[in-house]
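Summary for the steering committee. One of the milestones for this cycle was to obtain a three-dimensional model of the protein with protoporphyrin IX containing FE bound, which we needed before selecting residues for the alanine scan. The sequence and ligand used are listed below.
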Amino acid sequence: MNRLVAIWRSTIGKKIAMAGSGILLVLFLLSHMISNATVLSDPKHLDDYAAFLRSFGPLLWVARLGLLALVGIHVAAAWQLTQMARGARTADYDRREAQVATYAARTMRWGGVLVVVFIVYHILHYTTGTLHPDFREGEVGRNLIVGMQSVPVALFYAVTMLTIGMHLWHGVWSVFQTLGVSHPAWDRTRRGLAVVLAVVIAGGFLLIPLSALLGVLQWPPR
Ligand code: HEM
């Protein structure tokens, strides 16, 4: 236990915690995106998938708590690394303009804050139904489509998915650095993988609010 605390206290320990939790969150996002996309063919598919997940009973709660812990670790490590970097600097930069960093890198922190706000809203929207206009227990596909019929809501989802795409793009790129795979010979592969994962995951999610905005996704289905 003491060893774990010592690792967490070091900069490299926090970076590894951030990378590890990030990788597991990417896997969750990939599976969540694929299951959501089934609503485009038939909303019943999503109901069946949700019923299958609920059949695990208390284990589903273990998975939910695990997911929450991963988000907590990821955010805490990011926050503490920022504080450590600020503390290590005796004076502020003369010029704040990033010279090398991409737009995605510069928006990591605010993007992260938006994603956390989104997660809270999203759970109240689709899991508890508190912020849903007409929530029906167990009708997950229908709830998804009905909840996406409001233009401001669909736009909020679309903007957040674009932010998640940027976050993933820079995050996947950085994880290689943390894991020590940062040789120039690997740069093309790193860059390619970062772009592909960001486009596939964010693009797959984006299909849903965009289909709703374009009137392709409607309830009752056409
Ligand atoms: C267009 C994008 C998205 C749509 C349409 C969507 C849809 C849904 C729906 C319908 C549910 C309820 C599932 C159920 O009751 O079984 C749900 C749950 C959830 N979503 Fe999303 N989601 C999207 C993006 C995201 C993103 C980007 C994240 C994370 C950053 C996320 C995290 C979650 C979490 C944590 C739950 C709760 C899971 C549970 O408690 O069982 N979702 N989502």
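Key point for the committee: The domain at 2-213 is CATH 1.20.1300 (3 helical TM bundles of succinate and fumarate reductases).
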